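Q: Given only this backbone (108 positions), what sequence would you predict?
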């Protein structure tokens, strides 16, 4: 199953307890395929439990079609295939923690 990923960097997303902001994107080759990842910061600053923050990585998946169209706001859209291989997910988690200094890695 493929999904569309909209490339929107430097946009702040707010929630009831805080915010997060994707800052940069990168691609890593794994098992001969390109994998898209996004790095950003998350901050919890309006919760009852006190402030907290972390640097994170989000992995939409394998690149199927790179920036093949634009959405109605003009943002590029790529087609990706989410990772389902546990070995690859663990490998990418360690790689991104080392390379990007993130505390957590999330997968679609």
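A: Predicted residues:
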């Amino acid at each position: 199953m493929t999904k569309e990923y909209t490339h929107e960097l430097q946009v702040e997303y707010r929630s009831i307890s805080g915010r997060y902001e994707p800052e940069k994107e990168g691609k890593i080759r794994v098992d001969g395929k390109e994998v898209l990842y996004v790095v950003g910061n998350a901050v919890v600053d309006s919760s009852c439990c006190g402030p907290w923050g972390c640097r994170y990585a989000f992995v939409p998946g394998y690149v199927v079609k790179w920036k093949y169209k634009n959405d109605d706001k003009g943002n590029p859209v790529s087609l990706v295939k989410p990772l389902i291989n546990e070995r690859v997910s663990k490998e990418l988690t360690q790689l991104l923690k080392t390379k990007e200094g993130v505390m957590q890695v999330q997968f679609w």
